[in-house]
Every structure is written in structure tokens, then in C-alpha cells.
């Protein structure tokens, strides 16, 4: 494959907040929610798109949400919102369907096996539609997506420092690994540098890094959820069930704005045709890998429309309002929120602004 063009570094996002502020916000949100203030503040015709990844037995700060929290969030959505498909969101934007009050769409990125074993039964029980975005090179493959392998290797390594290959140009001769914060910083530096390489070269170098970190990921017991991906049989079973639709997250989990023209075309078309061939249904929605500002560009927007996609979702935070570009749709991160706190996020309402009586 051709090399990727240079581009801006991915934005490192953090939703970490001080516990006291989180507790205070939750209490205020609870009160505002129960008196109906939060919902009344959001008067625009909007849709909300939630972004998930793993749903696991226990929450994980990098890879997943606990099953209990996910189930509670789904019950909250069932009770207070109208959960719709991404097809419905596309139709509302196109003006071929009236805007649905309190509309929410549920999405998952990457295509983890726990979406089948854990999330899907909850969605079926509550009859909630969802879309799963697959990284197609990894469907049915063992061992996990390249960046998850690196994140886990850095978490598990016995080393307290690591000299990355000069090829990656991480900005440091040695990456300190003594604390969880240092390991997270090292992961962001290495992943950012790897995103600049051609997909095949990136995958091979990731394995060299994992080996250099002295971690045997296959020997981890139990295998982390972040390394277990859906099989095509599981994808087809969910697609046949009717509630879950599928779209591409690219082939190789590459940042599309960094791809050369030819590789960009290949990523957008091959991932789409692969899913359509396997499930026997048209694919209409795309999710940008990484998905923060600068991770997509005008070329991608133009090509997505040309190739028959209806929407593309980002990780830019916000709500989908009338007139939004269908190929730059914002989403809402789950953030482990419960009940009214999740509701506040879904209305994109800042509590402090609400208390000051400002309009939205």
C-alpha cells in the first residue's frame, strides 16, 4: 500500500474530572432532570448519537464500559428517549422524515466480540437498534487491533523505561514507564507516530514494539476484551436479527486525513464492499478512525458521498442539528455517566450555564 501523507497529530482527549466536581455535578443534574429543566432547555430539533466501544464485566478506563452501567444507560434511554437507527437520523437530516423528539442513536466502534456476547442481548431485550462500525481487516482475526495491542503491552510490560525506534520520532530518547500516567503518555506518543506509517509497515512495527516490551499478549489470562473481535458469523447473526446494522471503521484503523489519495479510496471502498458481501445488505454509514478534529478532510467527505454513504460520524462532541453536514456528525461519549448525568450530556447542557439562567 502507498504511504500515508503527513498530517496533524491526533487530539488527546480526556474526560477525567475531579471527584468533588463530578459528585456536585451529579447532584445538581439529578435535581434539574427531575424538575424537567434540562430537557426544556434543549428546544432545537436535534438527534443524539452515542459512541461506545467495549462492554465488559468490569469498566476499563481505556477500553470499555461495565455491563451494569451499559444496561442502566440503555434502560434510561428506553424510558426517557426515542432510540432510532442511523438510517432515521440520515432521513431527518435529508428532510424525508420529521424530526423525532428526544431521538438517540446508539453506535459502537471497532467491532469487539463483547458487542455480541454482552451488548446485543441487552439491546434485544429492550428492542433498541444500534450500529456497529467494523475495522474490516481485523474481523475474525485473533489478537486485536494494532493500537489495542500496543496499549495493553505498555500496561503489562515489566519495564520501567523503553527506547522506541528512531523511525517513530516520539520526541524522547527513552519513554518512562514507571507510573500509569507515564505509560498512558507513552502509548499516545507511540500510537501517534505509528499512525504516520503505511498500514502494513505499522502493523509489523507494532509487533516489534510489543516484543520489545517483553509482553506475550497471547499468554494473558483471561484474554482482554480489547483483543477479542467479532467473527463474520457473529456479524451475520446480528445483522439477520434486524436490530443491529453495520458500517465500516475503515480497513486498517488509519486516520483518513493522513492517507494518500489511492489508499484513502481503498480504505473507503474495500471496507464497504467487504461488509456488504458478508452480510448481504447495503452499507450506508461510516465512522472515522480516531475521529477527532483533523482526522478527516474534504477528500474523505467528497468520496463518502460518491461511494454511496449517507453519513459519517466523528468523535467531536455535540448534537446533530438540522443543517448539519451528514459526513461530519458529532457524537456523545458515554463517560460512565448514569441517569440524569447522562441525560445532561445528551442534551449538551452545562449545569453552570443553566444555573445562571442563560439561554441555549
Explain what the structure shows.
Helix content is 41%, strand content 15%. By secondary structure, the chain is of the alpha/beta class. It folds into two domains: 31-141 and 229-355, TIM Barrel; 146-219, no CATH class. Strands 1, 4, 5, 6, 9, 10, 11, 12 and 13 form a nine-stranded mixed β-sheet that branches. It is globular, with a radius of gyration of 20 Å.
Short synopsis of the structure:
The chain is of the alpha/beta class.
Number of strands: 13
Under CATH at level 1, the class of the largest domain stands as: Alpha Beta
Number of helices: 13
Query: Which topology of the largest domain does CATH recognise?
Result: TIM Barrel
Low-confidence stretches: 1-21, 350-360
Return the CATH architecture of the largest domain.
Answer: Alpha-Beta Barrel
Largest sheet: 9 strands, mixed
CA radius of gyration: 20 Å
What is the string of SSEs from the N terminus onward? HHEEEHEHEHEHEEHHHEHEHEEEHH
Classified in CATH, the superfamily of the largest domain is Glycoside hydrolase/deacetylase
Query: What is the strand content?
Result: 15-25%
Structural class: alpha/beta
* Mean pLDDT over the full residue set: 85
